[in-house]
Amino acid sequence: MQNYKYDGSTKFNIKNFDCGDTGEFKERHEAIQEFVANLDEINDYQQKLFAEQKEGIIFVFQAMDAAGKDGAVRAVLSCLSPQGVSEHSFKTPTAEEKAHDYLWRFWKALPEKGHISILNRSYYEDVLVQKVHKIYESYKWADRIDMDEIIDNRYKQIRNFESYLWENSFRVVKIFLNVSKDEQARRFISRIDTPKKNWKFSSSDIDERAYWDDYMKAFEVCINETARENTPWYIVPADHKWYARLVISRIILDELKKMDPDWPVLPEEEMEQLATYRAQLVLETELDNIVVDEATKGFRVKPADTAIANAINADSEALKKKKFQKYLKQSAFEIFKNTYGVDEEHLEVLGSVYLNYEEQETAAEMENAATITQYYNEKKKELKDDIEGLGKEGKKLYDKFKDEAKEFTADYEIRTNELYKKYSECLTRSIERFEKEIAGRSRNLDGSLKKFGSDVKRHFTNHRKKANRLALEVMADLEETYGTYKAAITEMVLAKEAAIAEKAELPEEISETEEE
């Protein structure tokens, strides 16, 4: 990852950068395991960051069109809790924004301490697109302003702005997704060829390609002018989306590790208060610190919990007996025996609640998998028909499509298993909590069952949303891949037809010459 980091100690040369680099990996499926593990760690660190509230972080994403910013943000940062994250996308400034200084609209997007802000395009547009098209010249300026120094002044202002944030406990991490001109063209073609992606394409995309070299120079100068030790730039090779997303996950995880957030530790006074509150709650709800003493058939407090022991001992014997009478009459063993041995109705409810959603989950996952497989088989057949008569080159394209599609489906299977593992863990916790409740408060078994059913439904609903979203992502990747290879094969077909037509015209030309 250090190969992609620029902190001002070395110069960035955009011409020497390989946009198609995939690091130590050759294929997408090799990187999946690390990517999934990184997302889990990022999620853990973000929870600590949010709890600690000592530092905030801003991730700035810049790129040419179709470099994959939106997809990368969605894929890498969807694991974060929404309550601690905000995303801001900046377009052409409004009239109100133009009436202020160029940084004005970005102040509102800065995070609180403990939060993460994602800037999808940022104030760097004011030294990129503004520089390439000289848009700033159309603005109103004071007479004292030297127009030739506008951009250079902005580099200095941005450095100072980011230094100010650093010195006030906010990190700025800047990520440039560097896509090649050829790959951008392929992605534009895919947007044109795929009806559901047509809305993403604009004629201005073609217009801006005419300024490609100017933009590359602007990015190079901008990065060299604003990369500093505490506010570095990361240049991410973006021709392969799967690798770009892996690198971004590494960058984010590395920055969070540097911040090293931890769960807050309360002052000693508050810790003592917590012990008192806990003792009070135990007395009220008859929880696990009250145990049955088999020898005396009485009750006792776990010796380690002295705060609770003291609280209980302060009560009268009569009050203690009254509070825990139900618990003492029925041990956990007796409650389970009654539930599973006598009360068949409750057992039946418990089983049906769990199995009903388990069956729905299995059916839904089979349907998603069948849809993806059917789509893949259909597109594979279409491409196979298209390459008829194209020889080795056509076969090569067809095989490459199959290989890439297999990677998507393998990736889908791995990520689906990860999702289901988390879903199962949630269900297991709900079951354990339910068993604990009926062991401690059997008088409200109906209420416990109702809550258990509600928990299972919530876990199922959340899981299905994530699983369906994952399936849609895979379908979109398959469609994009199909569109790319379809376009390449179509181009080969047209070239072959043109060659055949040219040969067919040749005898006519010879004939005309003979007549002359």
Features:
single chain; 516 residues; alpha/beta; six-stranded mixed beta sheet; two-stranded antiparallel sheet; 8 strands; 64% helix; disordered C terminus
The biggest sheet amounts to: 6 strands, mixed
Order of helices and strands: EHEHEHHEHHEHHHEHHEEHHHHHHH
The whole-angstrom Rg is 32 Å
Number of strands: 8
Distance between the termini: 72 Å
In short:
With 516 residues, the protein is an alpha/beta fold. The protein has helices at 28-52, 69-77, 95-98, 104-107, 129-133, 150-166, 181-193, 203-209, 212-226, 241-259, 268-285, 306-313, 317-323, 325-329, 332-341, 344-386, 391-440, 445-515; strands at residues 5-6, 56-63, 85-89, 116-120, 170-178, 233-237, 290-293, 298-301.
Write up what this structure looks like.
By secondary structure, the protein is of the alpha/beta class. Helix content is 64%, strand content 8%. The chain is built from 18 helices and 8 strands. The protein has helices at 28-52, 69-77, 95-98, 104-107, 129-133, 150-166, 181-193, 203-209, 212-226, 241-259, 268-285, 306-313, 317-323, 325-329, 332-341, 344-386, 391-440, 445-515, and strands at 5-6, 56-63, 85-89, 116-120, 170-178, 233-237, 290-293, 298-301. A 6-stranded mixed β-sheet has the order 1-6-5-2-4-3, sandwiched between helices. A hairpin with a 4-residue loop joins strand 7 (290-293) and strand 8. Helix 11 (268-285) packs across helix 12 (306-313). It starts with a strand and ends with a helix.
Blueprint of the fold:
Elements: E1 5-6, H1 28-52, E2 56-63, H2 69-77, E3 85-89, H3 95-98, H4 104-107, E4 116-120, H5 129-133, H6 150-166, E5 170-178, H7 181-193, H8 203-209, H9 212-226, E6 233-237, H10 241-259, H11 268-285, E7 290-293, E8 298-301, H12 306-313, H13 317-323, H14 325-329, H15 332-341, H16 344-386, H17 391-440, H18 445-515
